Design the sequence.
């Protein structure tokens, strides 16, 4: 006895709302094939981009543009005429400032320094600000490679940090000594010498701190010429009688009271 496949397929098709009882399905017709022709294919959620109004978070250790073209080695920013930009605390209450000379710091060093601050301030209410970004690509060649044949392959991302520039800032409900210790640990992880600064500290032009009412105009003004010293300000001349005996080491010089 043959199985009753045709009535069962018709009943399933009616329940799906795709066929009526008057439609006939052959025993070899698949219900999935029939329904797929009526229902549109729905893409997987991974193929869609969900709508959102929040901006995509970017990493300060990797630039948004990515590795597109090779950067030149370059030098750190040295503005003509001097500048104090980036040498004071802006967003936070305390900061970490480079004080020896400009250098190029890798993204790995910056990440380790930020992680040292987070570990020290674990459990505290604070916010960490980064004033630099690793957006310079560094390219190297392998060991024992002859000169020429291109710049080399991409190695890591780095940031050019000028002298007296703020690297990290912290704002929160923490004691100053705790934040000072966290900045000390971060400075030990980073290459170079660093100092702890507060909000309101005077800016720095190069290595000169602009204290005691010193302004940017005073630093940019050419150095003033001092008046020539007068005769009273110069040292007295040695008497001629003494000057003749100076060449003879055996002759003692007269005492100042003589």
Sequence:
């Amino acid at each position: 006895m043959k199985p009753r496949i045709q009535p069962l397929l018709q009943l399933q098709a009616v329940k799906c709302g795709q066929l009526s009882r008057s439609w006939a399905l052959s025993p070899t017709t698949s219900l999935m094939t029939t329904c797929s022709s009526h229902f549109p294919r729905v893409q997987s959620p991974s193929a869609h981009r969900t709508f959102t109004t929040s901006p995509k978070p970017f990493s300060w250790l990797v630039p948004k543009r990515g590795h597109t073209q090779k950067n030149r080695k370059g030098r750190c920013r040295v503005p003509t005429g001097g500048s104090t930009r980036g040498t004071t605390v802006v967003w936070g209450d305390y900061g970490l400032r480079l004080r020896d000379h400009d250098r190029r710091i890798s993204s790995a060093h910056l990440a380790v320094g930020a992680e040292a601050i987070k570990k020290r301030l674990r459990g505290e209410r604070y916010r960490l600000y980064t004033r630099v970004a690793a957006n310079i690509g560094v390219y190297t060649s392998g060991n024992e490679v002859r000169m020429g044949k291109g710049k080399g392959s991409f190695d890591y991302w780095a940031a050019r940090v000028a002298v007296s520039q703020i690297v990290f800032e912290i704002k929160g409900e923490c004691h100053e000594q705790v934040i000072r210790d966290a900045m000390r640990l971060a400075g030990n992880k980073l290459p170079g010498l660093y100092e702890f600064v507060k909000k309101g500290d005077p800016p720095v032009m190069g290595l000169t701190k602009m204290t005691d009412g010193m302004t940017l105009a005073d630093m940019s003004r050419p150095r003033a010429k001092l008046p020539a010293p007068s005769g009273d300000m110069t040292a007295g001349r040695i008497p001629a009688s003494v000057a003749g005996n100076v060449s003879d080491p055996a002759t003692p010089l007269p005492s100042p009271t003589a």
Summary: The longest strand covers residues 153-161. Strands lie at 94-98, 103-106, 126-130, 136-140, 153-161, 166-172, 194-198, 204-205, 208-209.
